[in-house]
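Quick one: structure for this chain?
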Amino acid sequence: MKKITFLSLTLFGFFLLFSCINSRTAKVSAKEPLSAKAEAPPQKRQRPSALSNGKFFEKGGQNYLYGGKREEQHFDITGYTLKDEQFHYGIGRERFPALLEPAFISVKEATSLWQDDDRFLLAKMGNETKAYSIKDLTHHEVVNDVIDGKPVFAAYCILADLGAMYDRVIGGKEYTFALSGYTYYDPEVWDGLDGFVMWDRETESLWWPLTGKAVSGKMQGTDMVVLDEKMWKQTTWADIQKNHPDAQVLKSGQDFERPTTWHRKYDDVSPGQNKGESIAPKWGEKDKMGKGN
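Got it. Here's what it folds into:
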């Protein structure tokens, strides 16, 4: 399978960034001064409708959502409860390189790459600390990783400005996450902003982080698991340099050959009960972790 170039995905990321900024900015009438009391309300940007573009179809009595050029890439959404008309895009399930084996560099090696106010997700477990820049997460959106033996993933959605660290073990089983190529919105959720829709490679269920749940497939209704608040935080490069000089920093510009099959599939799943948080905090609400960190 051909690799998607870093340049094309970066351009797509900047398009989404422009869309997000544009959708959240109120348009003021040119005939009125900026100090006028009455301003035009924010206007939601019209994004490509998955429904209008034929991404939903039925086959053999089952309902599917387009997932790529190969037939086995489509998502079985039979019985799901979301609204078809609120899905956007549909660029294919492997277009974003959601890393499976990420590479890292030292803080010293990364010093010249980042400015003090650049945003990062930072996770610390045991004697291992890892940092994921928001710039790189805009390119990947999901990075599957292992920290001190614990399977985790870092995620960032540019449209909703959602950035968080999640546990990849749910109900005693390890899951591996990637991007579906879709976004979804609900006027009652997260200020009505679009948010990315993920999928897991083990059951091919769809997950929507804005509600913190699986929304289709075998895992439908299962809560996501945000890492314990003592293990991670939303931070900046200045903080990492000052307080976490031993951190491993996600290397920029990574890509990989997308797997056409997956070694681990679950026929029987027992989601279990999530006793922690399932919905990520908004940016700025999670700037601290455990004492002394």
